[in-house]
Amino acid sequence: MSESGESKTNEGKVYGLAEAELAERPTVFREDLFREKTVLVSGAGSGLGRAIAFLFARLGANLVICGRDEAKLRGVEKWLQGFGATVDVHPMTIRDPEQVAALMEATWARHGGLDVLINNAGGQFPQKAIDYSVKGWNAVIDTNLNGTWYMMQAAAKHWVAEGQPGNIINIVSIFQRGQPDIAHTCAARAGVTYLSKTVAVEWAPPRIRVNCVAPGCVETEGFNVYPPKAAEMYAYSNPMLRAGDVQDVAEACVYLAAPSGKFINGEVLAIDGGQQMWGDVWSNGRPEYFDAADWTVRR
């Protein structure tokens, strides 16, 4: 994102929604739904995390936001405050369990508790799996899997110690058919999903719900990371023949966090336009091998 909040372009195509658009995006939820509630969103400086934070703030929540880029977080902070929200900004990395522990300590000290934890922080880069370096593999696993776990466990320990209910929503992905060119994040997101299903059972007695939201091809400024050919094909990843937008994911998080989701636990809510039943996604563009017109069986 640029300092103005406008998305970068990918060969003339603008991806993602600017702040002014997010501030006025229609929503089905009432304005005071999360009044006097505290919501923590990781990776809130851009993309899905920013959109999620915007919507919860518009619905009356106070926000705790974290991420690695303080400048982006400060830009988001100003908008959230414009909705009347109290906003705590924590520049940090979720890869460090000590920083995560400090974040939770600060949140409980300031607000006396936490109502909803949205684990959105994560990232990946398109590359053939055979070419991954050890450093590249570990970077994705440490953020998407380990970092998410540190956040989950740290919040749960506070909820249990204080006798408070909790609500965790993990942003994962559509990984069930594999994810060519981003195998590292496929492994991490699958791990988070089944970790979530497991602790949803373990943590039900202390009243902690754990669910996942799995976006398919949802347009964010992150599309600019991928080759133009790949980004253009995302619209064909599902039978609706279009990409989703960040508000689709934000509203799914609100649905799970609100009383509407009070009997949903250990679930994965796919926001993918039917992608699981339909399309293939190649983050580096589909190889010529699979574009061949002759589909004769090769021996």
In short:
The protein is α/β, with parallel strands linked by helices and 299 residues long. It has helices at 19-24, 47-58, 70-82, 97-111, 134-162, 183-202, 228-233, 246-257, 288-291; strands at 9-10, 13-14, 38-42, 62-67, 87-91, 116-119, 166-171, 208-215, 218-219, 244-245, 268-271.
Describe the structure.
It is a single chain. The chain is an alpha/beta fold and 299 residues long. It has one domain: 3-Layer(aba) Sandwich (Rossmann fold), CATH 3.40.50.720. It is 39% helix and 15% strand. The protein is built from nine helices and eleven strands. Strands 5-4-3-6-7-8-11 form a seven-stranded parallel β-sheet, sandwiched between helices. α3 links the parallel β4 and β5.
Main sheet makeup: 7 strands, parallel
**Share in helix:** 25-40%
Backbone shape: globular
> How many domains, in number, for the residues?
1
The secondary-structure class comes to alpha/beta
Overall pLDDT level: 90
Q: Unreliable runs, pLDDT <50, ≥5 residues?
A: 1-10, 295-299
Distance between the termini: 48 Å
Q: CATH homologous superfamily name?
A: NAD(P)-binding Rossmann-like Domain
